[in-house]
Amino acid sequence: MNYKKFYEWYHRDRKLPRRIISNKNFTYRIIISVLDKYCTSKEVFDVGSGVGTLDFYLANQGKQITGIEISDRAFKIALKSQKKFKLEQRINFIRTDFYRYKSNKTYNFVICSEVLEHLKDDKPALEKISKFVKKGGLLLLTVPSSNAPLKYFGVIKAFDKRSGHLRRYSMSQIIPYLSNFGFKVIFKQKSEGIIRNALFFFKWGNPIIRVANKFAVISDFITFMDNISLKLFGESQIIVIAKKI
After folding, report:
1. Sign of the dihedral through C-alpha 50, 52, 100, 125
2. Three-state SS for 244?
3. Do residues 63 and 43 make contact, with C-beta atoms less than 8 angstroms apart?
4. How far is residue 125's CA from residue 114's CA, in Å, rounded to a whole number?
5. Mean pLDDT of the chain
6. What DSSP element (H or E) covers 173?
7. Which pairing describes strands 107-113 and 183-191: parallel, antiparallel, or unpaired?
8. Domains and CATH numbers, the chain
9. What residues contact 18, with CB distance under 8 A and at least 6 apart?
10. 0.70 exceeded by the pTM?
11. 3-state SS assignment for residue 112
């Protein structure tokens, strides 16, 4: 399955969101906490914007977003949501293959979340992404960790196959890797313990995630327990902020 077909399949059941997510949303709260701290630029470029969940959150704070997405279905949902939330003037969604996207515009903040692991060759993608980041600008990158505790239970291969992951990364690998493309990592975080990872992997976790996304107290409790599991068993995800030097 190539990555375009994967993203069409991945977004096959997506529906219009009822509301813009809050910073306590269970699914996105970890990455949002990083965005809240480091995304101070007014203009943001999102590579692989999906249905626009993070973009709506940022646009609702007054930021101008350009989002690139290859999936037709995700793009259409993003446009409908954009109109629903009355954010047409804040976000420019573009449906295209990022490899073919051409623009001379550069940004002080670029997002590439859960993208590199789906690409057959991530080097051309990082090389191109680096060209959109201004000198001194920041890149937020998230990738699955090769240290994921679920691998010790023999289910990580099934998870990666279902999720379209072609590879995983270690923190010791990603930092020098980014330096090859002119970046210096200024923030790094090992996130998502085995509890969160299991909720997103096993079908029985779906209703729990829906409840946690709806009720902040549930989101807080599961996050507290997951942070304990993170210290005990290791991380499933890596988040870094890298500065273009």
Report:
1. negative
2. strand
3. yes
4. 13
5. 93
6. helix 171-179
7. unpaired
8. 3-148+164-192+236-244 (3.40.50.150)
9. none
10. yes
11. strand
